[in-house]
Amino acid sequence: MNPTEIIEQFRIAVRDPFGTARTIREGQNRPVVGYTCTYFPEEIVLAAGAHPFRLFGKSTVMLKTDAHIQAYGCSLARAVFEDALSGELDFLDVMAFPHSCDTMQRLSDIWRLNIKNTVHLDLLFPVHLKSEAAQDYMEAVLERFRKGMEQVFQVDISKDAMQNAISLMNRIRASLTALYKLRAAHSASISGSDLSHVVQGAMILDRLEVADKLEALVSALKGTHTPTRTAPAKRVLLSGSVCLHPDIHTIIEEQGGAVAWDDLCTGSRYFDVQVPEDLPPIPAIAKRFLNRAICPAKHGGTTRRGGDLLKLISTHRIDGVIFLFLKFCDPHGFDYPDLKTALETAGIPTLFLEVETGKPVDGPTRTRVETFLQILNQREAAL
Amino acid sequence: MKKHKTSGKPAYYMESVPKMKKIMRNYYLKAKYARYLGKKVAWITSGGPVEPLIAMGIIPVYPENHGAMIGVSHTGVELCEVAEGMGYSGDLCSYARADIGASETGGGPIGGLPKPDMLICCNNICGTVLKWYEIQARKFQVPLFILDTPFVHTEFTKEAKTYVDRQVKDYIRFLETAMKKKFPYDKMNVVGKRSVEAMRLWQQVLNTATAKPAPFTAFDAFFHLALIVTLRGTKTVLRYYRFLLDELNQRVEKGIGMVENEQYRFLWDNLPIWHRMRWLSRAFAARNAALVADTYTSAWCGTVDNIDENDFLGSMGEAYTRIYLNIGVDQMAEKVLNMIDKYDVDGLVMHSNRSCKPYSFGQYDIQRIVQRERGLPVLILESDMVDARKFSEGQVETRIDAFMEMVGQK
Amino acid sequence: MITCGIDIGSVTAKGVIMDENNLLATTIQFTGYNAGTAGETVLQKLLGQAGLKREQIVALIATGYGRNSVDFADKTLSEIICHGAGAHFAIPTARTVIDIGGQDSKVILLSDAGQVLNFVMNDKCAAGTGRFLEVMARALETDLDGFGQLSLKGSTPAAISSTCTVFAESEVISLVAKGESRENIIAGIHRSIAARTVAMANRVGLIPDIVMTGGVSRNIGVIQALEKLLNLPVTVPENAQLTGAIGAALLAQRAPNVA
User: Fold this and answer.
1) Cβ-nearest to C170 among B84, B388, B394
2) Among the CATH numbers 1.20.1260.10, 3.30.530.20, 3.30.420.40, 3.40.50.360, which is that of C1-91+240-259?
3) Residue B81 and residue C195: Cβ atoms within 8 Å?
4) Residues B159-212: tens digit of each pLDDT
């Protein structure tokens, strides 16, 4: 298969996630476990013979959610719940809520009270990831979830099954990392919009299929020739929660720029850091969660995110950072001013964008992105 | 309706009020001049474990209480605007924005809080405090202790118990390191007992409003609350609440109500709208309605049964984890129903508070549960606890009128 | 070199033809519902006015919210870049440009050479300032020019705090119901717009000289309220409404081989 054909399969999954999940459920006779956040042990779900399925919120009009969550809830939480209330998610056997932010925490309650046809599980992960107590507690939460999966699906999860699932997810993480590196080196090898679809699709499609397809894609792209550009593209880093607006990539590319890396939970935060295969499975998964790129809803020290961001900027030779937030996202909103100051002190221009899922990129947002790229281009001209 | 008058003073006059103001003034003076008194200052979240600080002789300071004072003094908007100028979105918690603004400019009713020597953050009330305290830890370059209390959606798991208990030990070690001295366990026993007694007294204070007419309203409770939040564990608090309780019991005996013609009784949910306290209390009183109780002020005694007063440190992890805001919406609804029965109210007034997502999301479901289980009318007021820009007087007044019509029809 | 700049805003479409630093033709008209047609009409009017043929225009840049509908443009640039260039041309000492239009408000920070260093645009919940003023003028039975003049007579501006224009509208209605004077209400509206703008400006940092452009710059009340809050003079260039179009025409000169 050529790259375009492979990418198209990921695009189809993103366009029709629920259809994709139903096919897996009915075709492979595998139960589906929905989840909302990248701090989720997909490995345990896979080891239980089930299919982990990330929810991104498809609904664009909130007809039913408004009766449960106020308009100042983020569009992601509201859209995901609208999907559930309108029956779109009736294929879910289990709905799992890893603890993330205040909004998702309350969504879990509201979901449990209103959606009755799925098994409801909360993963009460620690928020403070740096304390000594957190490591043991993280393991205990994972162990409870493992037992929960065994109980719900009436299976025994063997150590082998866990280890296989870990290897499978490590393959996926390795390939996604390779794809990101390819793009960081030659931005023309795969468009930002394509790559964004690939990462999202990887959280929707059957994971074995994902692992195979990603490996095929990496080797196919490695063979392609990168057309040389007249001027090197401005290298942008996207930082935020979810990016469900591939148009942002297109606007950046129209202005001669490229997203060279990201710090998104629909991006590198999904695949950052492998699960060590030489440790017992549960401690190994816990270790990855404690070490991977952190989400602002968790605590890893007061300067961790700024430091990580500066590291990404120097590793990937970033010219400018676009903060892409969902409106009403508190954890990102609180981090932003200090991050911005840290970057600007380091001479990195930043742009602040607020978007909502299900709403297209509007005129003012387009203007902001175009202007930002035009400023980056001017900087080059002035040097 | 009977009208009561005593010794020429209006019905709303209470001896406790000036006493309380004096205590708070002294407390803030002491905190502001802590350095000259050779004391250390800790900033702590409103749901945080203050008792070990009291035992250690550290002065606790509450940015949230400060936020409330900013709201009451109508300086919220200008301070929020300072934070917004720094890049903080106007959608973020207004306590946090106002506090960040005040620590930048030294503005607000008391010229900003005294600088902290350490920060104590317990996320049992929200995830916001974690982010807010991270910001202040970077700004003031002081150590930050986090008590991470897992959310109790349906159960308090045994691993969560182990986790919080271990952190209580970490907390003590943190304080020993910060103060370079041994933790006084004897003193802690005394402070722990006083704290439990203060919570019980506070509960009794709130209970007086079961009387008809209610001797005081939620608007008064919001005011008298400050001590149980800030100084529980001290003798001052016990003395004050005993005094307050006496005064309230006397009012009950004499049949003095805070609202002169108490005809309707309501329960308030969520934080107060600090910048509109007087306006709102008058708006309800003018309609012969008393807000006799609220879910907010009772949060500081709701978990007292989880504390073993003979082993405060050993039981406080659980007690602090199971507070009102750290439990599932259905458990909250259960508590609301209990309060509806206990205070015999005619309706529920919910403040949908843009600043407080963990308090506000789920209100619509609680509303439905209340309507289903008790058939009571529910009024939802959209506003914000500090940010007056999120309040629309005309809109709120219309809603109150419509609500009163519904209540009157019953 | 003869160049053209066309700025399609949400309310009005503006255009200029320039020969180096000289304005040869200028026009302003309503945008209407078809931004593409508006661009075409603007160009024809400009050519007629200047007595030029299309081929004589070496480069044409379109800007403004409808810029991508101008399919005959050699290049499009965002209105922020163009307002920056236009403001620098009109007032070379300008370092901060406040642009308040029908839909969007922007604060643009310029280098002393007129390059855009940073910018900030209004939050979605505070959109539509220009429109809001129009609606309020109508509700208070005056026109936009009268609006500015009246507010200067307001002795104590009424308190209006909402950033959301829908909320602000209901605040104004309550004030009317309470019998607050029209002058004070209008002064209050202007002060709240100024406060919002200053809060936004603080996010990029503010450097004098401050220049104001966009449709709302015609309102003396807003300008005075801004000056009061900033404690700095705010200058409005002569062709304030044409700033974006002028900037576009100037930038077209710098990059003639734009296509």
Assistant:
1) B394
2) 3.30.420.40
3) yes
4) 999 999 999 999 999 999 999 999 999 999 999 999 999 999 999 999 999 999
